[in-house]
Amino acid sequence: MSSKTAVKEEQKTQNEKIERFNKIMFYAAPAVGFVIAFALAFTPVWHLAILAGIIAGAFYNKMKQGVVAGLIGVGFGWTLYVIIKISTSNIEALLNQVGGIILGSSGMGWLFIIAVIILGFAFGALGGTLGSGIRKLICLQKETKQNE
Amino acid sequence: MDKSKRNTIISLAIVGLISVGVLVGFSIPLGIFPPLGELLFPGNGLWNIDEEVPKMEVITSSYLTEDVTVYRDQWGIPHIYGHSEEDLGFAIGYVHAQDRLLQMDLARRSTRGQLAEILGEGSLADDKNNLNKLMDYWTVESIKVMEASSDPTDVQLMNVLESYCNGINSYIDKVRTLPLEFQFLGYEPEHWTPSDTFAFIKYMSEMLTWGYEDFITVQIQDAIGADGFAELYDYPLPYQVPVCTDYGEYNDSELLTVSSKSSIDPILVELSNSFIESIMTIPKEKQFFEETEIIGSNNWAVNGSKTASGKPIISNDMHLSFNVPGIWYEAHLVDISPGADFNLYGFFLAGVPWPIVGHNSYIGWGMTNAAFDVIDWYYYDVVNDTHYMYKGESTPYEIIEYDIKVKGRAPEHFEIKTTVHGPVFETVGTDYDMTNYTNKVFACKWIAQSVTEESRAIYEFSRAKNRDEFDIASSFFSTPAQNIHYGDIFGNIGIRPTGKAPIRNDTGIPDWHLGNGSMIYNGSAGHGEWIGFIPFEDLPHTENPESGYVLSANQISAGPEYLANYTIQNPIDVSNGYRARRINTLMSTHDNLTVEDMIEIQMDHYSTKAGNFSTYLLDVIGAMPSKTAVQQEAYEILQGWNFMQDKDLAAPSIFNVWFDVYQQEVYNDDVIYLGSPRYPSRAVLEWLTKNNESSKWFDNIDTPAVETRDDIILLAFEKAITALASHFESPVVSTWLWGEIHRAYFPHLTGLPFLDYGPVSVDGTGDTVTPFGWSTLYFNGEIRPARATSGASERMILDFGNLSNSISVIPSGQRGISNSIHYIDQLLMYLDGEYHTQYFAADSIAEFKESWIESTLILKAEGGS
Q1: Do A46 and B15 touch (CB under 8 A)?
Q2: pLDDT tens digit sequence for B218-253
Q3: At residue B50, what are phi and psi to the nearest 5 degrees?
Q4: A-B interface: how many C-beta pairs under 8 angstroms?
Q5: Domain contains B668
Q6: Which of A71, A90, A111, A116 to mutate to test the interface with B (most CBs of B within 10 A)?
Q7: B109 lies in a domain?
Q8: Which domain holds residue B17?
Q9: Phi, psi (5° rounding) for residue B134?
Q10: pLDDT one-digit tens code per residue, B324-339
């Protein structure tokens, strides 16, 4: 085998590794976002949900992928939190009461549950967009510097 | 900059802006609502509220001398085991705060004029009104006296109270997320102080003794004259079974129909009407003004001669406004230190470390409102802004100043003028129009406006071991005056209307004045001065009567021999006596009573009123020459009725609506429309119905004919049947069920409707032993279903043959957290006539069985083992 072929072969292996890594990252990013969002859901600073989205999104330099990663990560993180709380407590009754107070109609607690989950997805999407956008911007900045 | 970079920056900027907008949007309050992010998002607000107490929790505190164990049973009721009064005080404070923090905070704020601080400008008038009553002022003065006292009992009491405050504050400091209501109101509770506990006792006094009866009496007498007042409202009151039976019996053969009194000075009538109009603009005061008959209670005690066990059984149900959470909090406290002999179960106010009613291993006690007249109103000639006339001299007002905190703006300075008697009411009410009377002001003298020692009384009740010790404790009980009944393991029973009852100097009062504090006095002339109080030993009481029982249900305190010496109740405040008559009948005709019998009596909804009126109603219907089919069916249903106010029967609907119309037809024309704000007692109407069928009150003065009793009975029947048929939209009388127009409602104490419970159909009426309070069903031809918002606020039955048989229930639950399983668990039992055990036999940690434990709280003494 010539040295040229060996280099090509090595390059190919390297590319495959990167591809595999990217593939893993593609799936890992939402998982990372999910874990962080779920953990942060136990803190009183709800604003950090967007941070979880940013971290998940930062795995990508394509903003569309970032949106999806953040959306899935934070959305499902909050969904799991809500499911756990509903199954281990009587929060539904409380949400029904709050629904009555805010919306003026009883039995509207489910609306808040759905709203919270949807907002979790939305915060994730916003964070993911920001994360991936920032990464993309950094990459573009690097490329510009290299080209110069 | 290349296109890709530019697009990325633009996208980032847009998304960043949206993100910031969202973050800010969910972080700011929206009108009355708190920031939605803090309320609704994971990790925040609702999601963190401790709906239940932890199954197992250990808290360490430097305030404790030794460890305290708190077991909660399946109703969330704490059973507290500690080694000293102070440690037990700390623990009861901690659990009170765990379960009822909002209720405690609102009660102290209401009494102390601090609502505007959390609710804003809208509550400023309430705060001024509450401060004007001087409840806060005299709370502070009472605490000062107690703190300065070197009496060992007072010192110990204050030690326990300090520990109690430490318990509450330890919870306030530790709580992770405050209950829902705090989040909506957007504030955090301040530390609890001993003054707050004393304020709570003033709050109870206000609830049970504040009023405007002096003005009402003026209005009634002005409306129907002195003779009318004497016949319909004044003593002697018919069919009264006195609380204390040792002072003779009343002769019900006649009502007093002649009075020697002259007409009231019309200027004074106008003056008092103006004042009342002003007062009525404040919702809370309007409630005080209107009839509050249900603010009463039942209690009775039977001794061994009437029980199966040969030992006393006592029962108590105190009637107050319904709320969730309810006013009472049950708890069991045991001192487990060696040699200690302290095992206590009682009904506490959350905010007070000692039970108001309850029992220990030796004695038990309960209360009903005694309705002593302990508030007098005075009018004065004004000299100028700073002086008024008193006994011929220009006298300066004393000034009490407050700076009332108001949410969202600077504090409001508020000055209260006081006369020699009490605070002047001149800036209350939104439409205060005294422009014709700028030379007059009103002030009141009220028993709660003094240093009082109820805390000492209830502290000592808990520790009393016999009647003598209990009497000593009772002598400290000033207000609100209560009929306190008693039983013990030694076989004794007794009852004593207890509280400070003022004696007035009525020398020189005008001829029209009824005296005894029943009408407004000329304060400038020095009329109606309080010159002392009835000595404790002179208060009426009954001990171990031959009948074998004592009872009270807000009826007259004592018989005629006592009234010859002292008048302690305003006649318009004395209950009509139907509950007392029924209890008296049941007590006198039953022997070998057991706890189960007592349950039946507490749940009894036989109507003595219906039993006494129905004969006359049926006679009149029976004599009708012809009846419609609906009238005939109603007649037959009434004929077969056993007078039980059962929610599943139609007869109570017919009778109660008929009675409403009957009362209105008898009195509206010549009593109510002439200006009397209250109907005479229903017992008076019973007397007139039975004894004077041609009484002038039966005649409708607006018609040319002269009506008699039977004319009005018939007219009322016809109107009632027409209104019921219309309301139920059915001519089938058997479908007119009482439960359809008689429902109980349990509002949340903030007034937020979605935290309420009800309405729910219930048996009974305001006049049955099991009571539900409402005013009127019939309004101008229409039925407005009753919404009963008051009734028994607790039920307790104590068996001194075996105190472990003692049972109780409250119409809410232990926890004020609206999604807790203990929010309304006992309310559901209450509505089904169920009770729970008190686990009183568990007088040590080991005795409290594992299977009874729902949760455990260990309060560890810091540095302890």
Answers
A1: no
A2: 999 999 999 999 999 999 999 999 999 999 988 877
A3: -80, 90
A4: 110
A5: yes
A6: A90
A7: no
A8: 3-30
A9: 65, 25
A10: 999 999 999 999 999 9
